[in-house]
Design goal:
Layout lengths: L15 E2 L13 E4 L14 E6 L7 E6 L8 E7 L5 E6 L14 E9 L3 E9 L8 E9 L2 E9 L4 E2 L18 E7 L6 E11 L4 H4 E5 L3 E4 L4 E10 L9 E7 L15 E6 L7 E8 L10 E10 L9 E4 L13 H11 L2 H7 L1 E4 L8 H4 L4 E4 L10 H15 L9 E4 L17 H7 L2 H16 L5 E2 L23 H6 L3 H6 L16 E5 L21 E4 L1 H17 L4 E4 L3 E4 L7 E2 L4 H11 L5 E2 L13 H11 L4 E2 L4 H13 L5 H17 L19 H14 L1 E5 L11 E5 L6 H5 L19 H7 L3 E4 L12 E7 L20 H13 L1 E7 L15 E6 L5 H8 L49 H18 L2 H19 L5 H15 L3 H14 L1
Parallel strand pairs: 15-21, 22-23, 22-32, 23-24, 24-25, 26-28, 27-29, 28-31, 34-35, 34-36, 36-37, 37-38
Antiparallel strand pairs: 1-10, 2-13, 3-6, 4-5, 5-13, 6-12, 7-10, 7-13, 8-9, 8-12, 9-11, 14-16, 16-19, 17-18, 17-20, 20-21, 29-30, 33-38
Length: about 1000
């Protein structure tokens, strides 16, 4: 799902505009930030520098340091031109390698602006807290360009508000502390060409105590059992941690504006807390609020505590004591889930039901109190949306804080929090990152797939997250697709065989294990046909294939794309996510219809024919792609069978619109009840009503040796040996090995997209072992030269590790700035090393790369896919600790013109066929045709007796015989029956599979 965000100002606040500014006698001298004389260069993280950004290639402004005779300060100014259609602007990030700047002693920020009198709003934001400038909170305000010529814009820090429409990480502490400032950014106007000039950014004035000192409470919500006493801790703190200069008083009183009744449900309290001058920052006082007990079953009831602060900044929101709901049937864990759901549903209002159907992005909420205000049912972290610091403890604390907010609602229905843990808990730094699904498909090992799911579930649940948007059950049919690596392969039979991962994630198919501390709710995505979109059919931005149109016959739809979903339903999958793509079933007369609108597929096939009883969650903002106005988007998708809507930034609009659509009769209350019942059932199964907060007992296992051992095994088994002339592999430890290539020592390239951030990134962004380090750890005698510029003489063998850099989804589509060719640098490294010595080339990529023109010069070729954080696993097969056993999960093409090319095609002439994979595990059986005939007889017998394990072993023996005879002389006559044999084996037709292999053998 895309993780993009429009950079639009959250508040339109007009700053104080004055050509001359007076300075109080005790004000500190202005502190320069940017003089724009060239002292700060055009550069980006981690260096100190100014850089531009925008929504597409045309939107970043053009900047320069220009000489201006009328410059307010010095001789140069920062000037620029722009023509922005989406969003664009520039940023000054302070150096990430240096300490952040402390701005807390000053009143505000000011700068000179060359007015164009265009009445446009200019947004200014500050970067506060966090790890560095690109991982900090954003605080925003704006001014209006309604004047001509230079004017000094002066903005006190009190005018800045927390950005709610977009945060790069968000939720650090929601406090503009100013003690760790990482820079500022300017968002320029859209819609028309323009120019600007800016000069002399500086800090001015003296911060008064009401800005520097603030009063906080240790929580916003204080749930207590009926009859218990809530303890509200009130703290005074200062930026810079200095003692307070003047007294701070906090008057408190319980307000009768809540749903609890004074005297009946609680004893009212009132009083004043005093923090004298000189009190240390961090000093705390406690207010106690006693509740009263009666004998009746009740909903949760609220008791607001009003705090009136003098001498400091008051809390952002007033605290609230909550008497927990009690005695109601839905709270009884001994009752069947259906009865609990029915009881709770019968008590809920339409507004509360609409909230349960709504999912917001955690960093996009205006305020965490929106969880209770809108009765939100779910939150998610989009790709790269993490707490700071990005640790397991911080995740758990963040999510617990969100869960606490649900306790202020009538029925205290817990949130279900979701993440895209698509190859391990990939958003969490230090987690175990598995190979992407394409590599898992290459292992042909269902038991291992289940183990990877188990490790992922354990690490995800230990951070307080009970829901994983995985696995992707797409059947990739065109490797130009930017998310083809999220697929287990091109054959639905292979995808189905790997769905053991669902049991790894969820446990038993009946859901009885979901409440355990090492299991999560899984999601089958993207229903249906996302892997079959036609190249050039996408209408999303510059995407070429992702989110496009899948054109199929009804038979193709059933056989290829729908088949894995019946398996998922049979395995008890808890949620299903529809695809962004459109489905065009040839001959049905509908034409292309977006999947989020296809009631025939969601209600009819998935929920009806297949019997899916979980809930359907939309993809990220996917309903916005439906035709019509927003009301039509909401009613169409809900009526089509989507139960919960992922509306990251528009959660308020969605709930309001859904309620209105029900009242208008466009959506029935029966449909709402069905959706909410499905959602509540999964929450009950997960045990969230009994244990809403994070169970961190497994946190010590995150990234543990035992978990990494599973990832290491998966990395090893995913390696596909495509060629091995003269048995170059495995390497021997006494050989001198020359290692080169862009992906030999790059953990980010090795883990790919969806790693720490949505698109992933090159470099070291988490904890793991590169392939190079793995080779060293294996005891190899290796010398490394990334670009092969070092001398190549004196080596026994070369290993060149090349391939792709990270991408995800449509941004990775071929034709959208990507192709399937190696980079010139990688090509040069391969050419140089393979010309100088025997060589093995490893391709680290999410899809096949075009290597045919160099294949004759390469002795050994390995498809390494995206092996994850455990490069030791790749080294294990390179040095023979483990054998090469992987098989191609997709067809390896000779050229891009061949695409799409898949097993079963009438015309089939690839570089390497589907299912190809040499082994170093065992000797190839002798006997040729005679042995193959005997294997065919035995395989047919295995068919009749349902002996799957024996049948697969027989097919494997036959495959090795055929591969040995074919060698590198792969032709259409050998490739087609070879690939067909692998498909037949996966469908349990072992005798027929061997017969196909006999055909390939005879054609070789």
């Amino acid at each position: 799902m895309p993780r993009t965000a429009l950079l639009v100002s959250a508040a339109l606040l007009t700053a104080l505009l004055s050509p001359t500014v007076s300075q109080a006698a005790d004000d500190p001298a202005p502190a320069p930030v940017d003089r724009f004389e060239g002292e700060v260069p055009f550069a980006s993280q981690p260096a100190d520098g100014i850089f531009t950004w925008g929504s597409d290639n045309d939107d970043p402004p053009q900047l320069q340091f220009a000489d201006r005779a009328d410059a307010p300060e010095g001789v140069k100014v920062l000037s620029g031109t722009y023509d922005i259609s989406g969003y664009g602007g520039f940023t000054h990030d302070f150096a990430a390698t240096e300490p952040a700047h402390d701005w807390s002693a000053h009143k505000g920020i000011r700068f000179w602006w060359d007015g164009q009198n265009n009445a446009k709003k200019i947004a200014l934001e500050l970067k506060d807290g966090g790890a560095h400038g690109e991982a900090s909170e954003l605080w925003t305000t704006s001014f209006t360009d309604d004047f001509s010529g230079w004017r000094q814009i002066e903005i006190p820090f009190t005018d800045f508000v927390y950005r709610t429409d977009y945060q790069p990480v968000g939720g650090i502490d929601h406090v503009l502390g100013l003690t760790q400032t990482w820079g500022y950014a300017v968002t320029l106007p859209v819609g028309a060409p323009g120019q600007f000039a800016m000069d002399d950014v500086e800090l001015y004035g003296k911060a008064d105590q009401s800005l520097r000192a603030n009063v906080t409470t240790d929580a916003a919500v204080y749930p207590v059992k009926e009859g218990g006493t809530a303890s509200v801790k009130v703290t005074v703190a200062t930026t810079g941690s200095a003692p307070i200069d003047d007294p701070v008083t906090v008057a408190y009183e319980t307000a009768a504006t809540g749903t609890a009744q004074p005297g009946k449900d609680y004893t009212p309290v009132t009083g004043t807390l005093t923090f004298p001058a000189g009190t240390a920052s961090g000093a705390t006082r406690t207010v106690k609020v006693p509740t009263l007990k009666d004998r009746s079953a009740e909903n949760a009831e609220t008791i607001p505590l009003k705090l009136t602060v003098t001498g400091a900044k008051a809390p952002a929101e007033q605290p609230e004591v909550v008497v927990n709901a009690h005695g109601l049937p839905y709270l009884d864990s001994k009752l069947p889930v259906k009865k609990r759901v029915a009881d709770l549903l019968s008590r809920m209002s339409l507004e509360e039901k609409a909230g349960q159907m709504t999912q917001a992005e955690r960093g996009a909420m205006s305020t965490p109190s929106d969880i209770a205000s809108y009765d939100l049912g779910s939150l998610l972290s989009g790709g790269g949306s993490t707490p700071t610091p990005n640790t397991a403890a911080a995740w758990a604390k963040m999510i617990d804080g969100f869960q606490l907010r649900t306790q202020a609602t009538r029925f205290q229905i817990p949130l279900i929090y979701g993440v895209d843990a698509v190859h391990g808990h990939n958003n969490l730094a230090g987690a175990t990152v598995m190979p992407h699904n394409i590599g898992i498909g290459a292992t042909r090992d269902p038991q291992l797939a289940q183990k990877t799911g188990s490790v992922t579930a354990s690490e995800v649940r230990a951070t307080g997250v009970p829901w994983d948007f995985a696995p992707c059950l797409c059947v990739t049919r065109d490797e130009r697709w930017g998310r083809s690596y999220e697929s287990f392969g091109e054959d639905p039979a292979l995808v189905k065989s790997m769905e053991t991962v669902i049991q790894g994630l969820q446990g038993a198919a009946n859901g009885k294990d979901l409440k355990d501390d090492d299991k999560v709710l899984a999601t089958a995505k993207h229903f249906v046909g996302d892997g079959g979109t036609e190249y050039g059919s996408s209408t999303t931005g510059t995407y070429t294939i992702d989110q496009g149109v899948t054109k199929v016959t009804r038979q193709q739809l059933e056989a290829v794309h729908l088949a894995p979903y019946q398996t998922a339903v049979d395995r008890g999958i808890g949620t299903v996510m529809p695809s962004y793509s459109s489905l065009d079933i040839l001959g049905d007369g509908q034409g292309p219809v977006k999947m989020h609108a296809r009631a025939d597929m969601i209600n009819g096939v998935l929920k009806g024919r297949m019997g899916f009883d979980g809930f359907v969650i939309s993809d990220w903002n996917a309903i916005d792609q439906l035709p019509g106005d927003y009301a039509a988007h909401v009613s169409t998708s809900v009526n089509a069978g989507v139960d919960m809507m992922m509306v990251p930034y528009s959660y308020k609009d969605f709930t309001t619109t859904l309620i209105a659509q029900v009242k208008a009769g466009a959506v029935t209350e029966k449909r709402i009840d069905d959706a909410v019942s499905r959602i509540l059932a999964q929450k009950f199964k997960l045990g969230l009503f009994e244990k809403p907060y994070a169970d961190t007992s497994n946190a010590s296992k995150i990234g543990s040796t035992s978990h990494r051992a599973v990832a290491r095994q998966a990395a090893a088994e995913s390696q596909v040996l495509l060629k091995n002339a003269n048995n170059v592999l495995p390497l021997k430890k006494n050989q001198k090995v020359y290692v080169a290539g862009s992906n030999a020592d790059d953990l980010g390239n090795q883990t790919g997209g969806w790693t720490i951030t949505w698109q992933g990134a090159s470099g070291t962004n988490t904890t793991g072992t590169t392939i190079l380090q793995g080779m060293k750890n294996a005891g190899g005698d290796v010398t490394y030269s990334k670009d092969a510029s070092a001398a190549t003489s004196g080596y026994d063998v070369g290993v060149v590790v090349v391939g792709e850099t990270p991408y995800a989804e449509g941004i990775g589509d071929v034709g959208n700035g990507n192709d399937l060719a190696l980079t010139p640098a990688d090509q040069a490294a391969v050419d140089k090393v393979c010309a100088a010595m025997k060589c093995a080339v490893l391709i680290v990529s999410g899809r096949p790369q075009l290597i045919g023109d160099r294949l004759g010069d390469i002795d050994a070729l390995v498809a390494s896919w995206l092996p994850g954080t455990e490069g030791d696993g790749v080294a294990d097969v390179l040095y023979g600790k483990r054998s090469f056993t992987g098989q191609l999960p997709v067809t390896w093409p000779k050229s891009e013109a061949q695409l799409p090319i898949n097993v079963g095609d009438t015309a089939y002439d690839p570089q390497f066929p589907y299912g190809w994979g040499l082994t170093t595990k065992t000797k190839v059986p002798g006997g040729g045709t005679t042995t193959l005939k005997a294997l065919a007889v035995a395989a047919a017998l295995a068919d009749r007796h349902g002996a799957d394990e024996a049948g697969r072993a027989l097919v494997d023996k036959a495959r090795l015989i055929v591969q040995q005879k074919i060698g590198q002389n792969i032709t259409a006559a050998t490739a087609k029956p070879f690939a067909d044999a692998d498909h037949l084996s996966l469908t349990g037709k072992y005798g027929a599979a061997v017969e196909k292999l006999v055909t390939a053998y005879r054609a070789a």
